[in-house]
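HUMAN: Please help interpret these tokens:
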Amino acid sequence: MIARPRPLRVAVTRDESADGPLAEALRRRGMEPVSCAVVAEATPIDPAALALAARELESYDWLVVASARAVTALIEARGGMALPAGLRSAAVGAKSAAALAEHGAVAPLTAEVAGAAALIEALRDADAWSGRRVLLPRAAEGGTELGDALRRLGAEVTDVAAYRTVARPSAEIVSEWAAADADAVVVASPSAARALVGAVGRDGLRALEPVVAIGSTTAMALVALGVMAVVPPRADFESVAELLSRSAQAEGVE
């Protein structure tokens, strides 16, 4: 078979650093992640709920976070106070776990692979969940799978918007998209899907193979915008990277 002339270039549309968890998962499999963040973070429209949860954090049994930004927002709402000593915590990945530890959490629970699906399995046997109070600060547009799963286990979950995502200016997205010169793209949220298609158009994404959506909700948002997407079997970064790696191998390797 004909060898690919360069490593698969994958546009990463989530707002993460060059050594973020998705970028690192892609690199481990020989791909080249290129940053093309399409959304930026902003304070929630109504910060009162986060402020209340921050004041009452001592009354919770668990703090579960899906991003380092959620931890930062919570600590800011607490006026810089550290997390309570007896509070148990869990995080979807290494960076969010490090943010918890930085602010006083002891041995935050993480799964072997990053992502909500894997963390749900790790949490399942971590406690007797009936009646446990769990604070889940997240992006206003973030997924609800963590909270839904903990409620099914019997926990009392307070799901609060810690921040929100807003689309970056279209001109900035278009410029980064052109510079990325990507072969494939990973879209991490419905808001990212709308921002990206709004800036570069559906044909800009249709030309790529594949377009990967992290989760069925994001895939449905892309379909509604006229872009077909593939979804990995698990909503975590390792599964995304593995799907893209298999796609690259099928397309042509020596």
In short: DSSP finds eleven helices and nine strands in the chain. Residues 237-251 form the longest helix (15 residues).
